[in-house]
Write a structure and sequence with these properties.
By secondary structure, the chain is of the alpha+beta class. Helix content is 58%, strand content 9%. A hairpin with an 8-residue loop joins strand 4 and strand 5.
Length: 350
């Protein structure tokens, strides 16, 4: 494909592109084609002058713009035909009765020139394969032999005029190369307008992305913010789990203490008819220690180890009850902690 000469559309110079793509080289320029157009205009003027330079038809002809070219770069079929005569080439209308009587298969021809309104393009055989060399395409388009006739028929239905190029085309590198090899085309070329629209859309999308990245102060800010958010959520979940575990531990200790306290009250015989509160226990302990101090002050130094009799025995009994209550409370807490640890180990194994 790289060896094929293909001029792309510039302005309205499709006639120039058509001729150069047909001949496979930069054979014609706008200046040369304009010169041919002016020559044709002069020949037409001279023919009109034969009827009289003072005739109404002649004056009308002079006032009309050229029919062979215009300021946009358009050139008529007469200009193209005269340009090809320089190379000994002739144009024949494809659907004319004269040509149709020849019953020539299109694949046996060498090239075609197609025209619709003011657009011209070439379909040419290079080597053993056909190519659409339309200057509006981004590159040459491969046409199979079986598709060629259908392609030309479709152009005729769309209103195109098709001309068969008769004569020997000048030698070109692409024709010589493609005589030895056949090419395959994986992706068909697009129209230049479609490609430009696609490139414009890509630039717009790129600009929008850059604007978003700038708004977030750098291309890596979006990713960094997302990572920070994920880390914050993970830490939050860990803190919630720890708080839930601590709350479960406190509830377990409280329930265990309540259950142990109830069991102690049921199983342990009380000296009095009612259960002692912690405040009553505290007062009794204070009373006990005060009496102990008074007893030590009254006893002689030689008998420091003697115990009081009945009254002190009652206090010992009260102190024993208080100490037993504290010991049992401590035991309940220890049992609760062991139960919670056991539950955590069981959950971890699961």
């Amino acid at each position: 494909m790289e060896s094929i000469f293909h001029e792309k559309q510039e302005g309205s110079l499709c006639a120039q592109h058509c001729l150069n793509n047909l001949l496979q080289g930069e054979y014609f320029s706008p200046v040369e084609l304009s010169s041919i157009a002016h020559q044709l205009d002069e020949e037409e003027r001279m023919r009109m002058a034969e009827g009289g330079v003072t005739s109404e038809d002649y004056r009308t002809f002079l006032q009309q713009p050229s029919g062979n070219m215009d300021d946009s770069g358009f050139f008529s079929i007469q200009v193209i035909s005269n340009a090809l005569k320089v190379w000994g080439l002739e144009l024949i209308l494809f659907n004319s009765p004269e040509y149709q009587r020849l019953r020539i298969d299109p694949i046996n021809e060498r090239s075609f020139i197609c025209n619709y309104k003011e657009h011209w393009f070439t379909v040419r055989k290079l080597g053993k394969q056909w190519f659409n060399l339309n200057s509006l395409l981004t590159g040459p388009e491969l046409i199979s032999d079986t598709y060629l006739a259908l392609f030309l028929a479709q152009l005729q239905q769309e209103g195109y005029s098709i001309f068969v190029v008769k004569g020997d085309l000048p030698d070109c590198e692409a024709d010589q190369l493609l005589q030895m090899i056949r090419v395959q085309q994986m992706h068909r070329p697009k129209l230049i307008g479609e490609e430009l629209a696609q490139l414009k859309e890509q630039r717009v999308q790129k600009t929008d992305l850059e604007r978003v990245l700038e708004a977030n102060d750098g291309s890596g800010m979006l990713d960094e913010d997302e990572e920070d958010l994920q880390r914050a959520l993970a830490l939050s979940r860990q803190e919630i789990d720890l708080e839930d575990e601590e709350a479960d531990l406190r509830r377990a200790i409280q329930l265990s203490m309540q259950g142990t306290s109830r069991n102690i009250c049921q199983d342990t015989p009380q000296t009095s008819g009612t259960h002692l509160t912690s405040e009553e226990l505290r007062k009794r302990r204070e009373a006990y220690f005060e009496k102990q101090q008074q007893q030590q002050q009254q006893d002689p130094p030689g008998h420091p180890c003697e115990k009081p009799n009945t009254s002190s025995g009652a206090l010992d009994s009260d102190l024993g009850d208080a100490m037993s209550e504290e010991d049992m409370l401590q035991a309940a807490v220890t049992m609760s902690l062991e139960t919670v640890r056991s539950n955590f180990k069981t959950e971890g194994k699961k």
